[in-house]
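hi got a favour to ask and not much time before my train. below you get a single protein, a line of residues and a line of whole numbers that encode the local backbone shape. could you go over both lines and see whether the tokens make sense for that sequence. a few lines back from you is plenty, here it is:
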Amino acid sequence: SFSFLSFDIIGIGTDDMYKTQRMDYKKGKQNFSYLPKVGDYVVHSFYGIGRCKDIVRMKLSLFEKDYFVLEYKNGALLYLPSEQTNLLSAYVGGEGPKINALGSNEWNKLKQKVKDDLKEVALSLAKVYKEREENVGFKYSRDEQLERQFAEAFVFDLTPDQAQAVIDVDLDMESPKIMDRLICGDVGFGKTEVAFRAIFKAVYNGKQVAFLCPTTILSEQHYRSAKERMSKFGVRIEILNRFKTEKETQEIYKKVARGEVDLLIGTHKILNSNLIFKDLGLLVLDEEQRFGVKDKEKIKQMKTDIDVLTLSATPIPRTLHMSLSGIRDISVIATPPRERLPIQTYVSPYSDQLLQDVVSRELSRNGKALVLFNRVAEIYQFRNHVAELLPKAKIGVAHGQMMEKELAKAINDLYDDKFNVFISTTLIENGIDLPALNTLFVVDCDMLGLSQLYQIRGRIGRSDKLAYAYLTFDGGKILTEDAYKRLDAIKEFRELGSGFKIAVRDLEIRGAGNVLGKEQHGHMQKVGYDMYVKLLEEVTKELSGQKVATRKEIKMELSLSAYISEDYISSQEERIIFYNKISQISSKKDYDETIDQLVESNGELPTEVENLCKIAYLKNLASEFNVNKVRVNSNDCSVYFYKSTEIIDERLSSVIRFYETLLKFEELPVLKVNAQGSVVDKIDLLIEIFSNALGFKKD
């Protein structure tokens, strides 16, 4: 949509008026933002990092199949059958990764090195958490009525993820173990409310709470929210930051020492050695990674024997969360508040007309606009220019070089409705939370990082009103390729929870590094995010005593055509999505769901697509049984096994006696199945055999 109010013109796109039908791909096991695209760097589970050159259809012995063409070191090419797309993921981990050589052992060595280092980190983390569990902490009691009253005073409904996080924290606090839980969630998804409920529980149990924030602005935001949420329940709250005078600071120290403060919110000033709590029970840390090394050391000393709740707006996807389970206590908030709408994001060259129109529209609906201008030296000159464009606007300014009192007044005036247009530097990246703030206008957006743009955009759209973000750049300037990529990404990921996708490009690696330590960042860059998570999952299972199956490559020599034609699905991106989904079919339920989804979104299933689904299903079943190759044609139905001490899995050997089969020893052990009918009939029979073997249980 667009508007030119001075000409009495408003344009509304059909997408804004009518809800478009879109396929829901959420049922897939893998986040589709990691899927490979032609031209991208990709990671193959067995061969490592290469580049996806093309997707080609090849005809071999009268039968057609689609292949991903992957280019490796020195121009070596690998043709990957489409039913094996699940072995492939888009490389996420930085610019220009090291391409691997086909046929060398470097990829396996690298994976093992990362895995060994991960095991070391995981063991040390697990040791720390085990020690904390063994140390007996304060066991909080529950007052059902008081907690219900506090919960009912919250004006919104909890999302399912928020509710689960509250339960997780409650269980931690009511057990004798010392809590150390990480709450991860996207910008504006309600981590603070989870923290407030923990704080309230600690306070009514007679304990003091410290709420540590990385910036003054963020501490002021939390202070306002806490006063609004808790004052009516008699919680005594104070704040320590650079807005406080030395005299005020000393007075707060005394009150804290006497136990006259229940909740102390503040910046690193809380870590001052002169500040002594009478009975500190809970430490809430917001964005711990943003504190300096010295502060982190003080935090470490502070949290040895008290409950700790850490909040992080660096999104951690469920894939990483699941892999970390058993190593860290993490609650993920991935669902947006119910009434929240996606932020409409536009990237455009800057013009005075655009700024005037955008801000005027917001003011006409009694809202507020945030204008990001990240040059302190020119910010007041720019403010005067905006005042000329919008003579009726009430304009405020904030930047990091302002005196404490001046900055505090500017922020307070914004909250007290004295401004409806607020011009600021990236100072407000974290810490402004105003429901009326629903338009963002960024000047020179190409000078900001992707994660910064995403976090700043998170300052708006915190109500049920449609919010708009306009990211502008100098139209006369030639943007770098990286800048174009960032702007494409921020525009593409406008949906709620897009932090999880943005994270793929910029945040995720940093986020996981925060959880496991900085040294892990380099490992992720070497093997890519997706492979890193797989290795982490293997390490976690091994440490918990579970058996990790080592999957090997399977060759599928099947005489039938199997591909998705352009006539059936015209979009290459959507074909890749379905290739990936099909390649993960490993049960009858997966098979039926995928077929239903294909028919629902694209119509009657062509024979070639049905064949592809069966091939993928058979391949994934066979991968459970040390299979090297499956060969099916009009004259043959054979399953070849890798040489090992156990030639045929016990489950499979118990099942094949019900079928006409013959185990032979050629170059590889081979199971010959006496199957009649067409190639498809033979594939169906093999699927039946492997399915029965998977479900086989000894008497």
User: Anything to note?
Assistant: The first helix runs from residue 14 to 17. The radius of gyration is 29 Å.
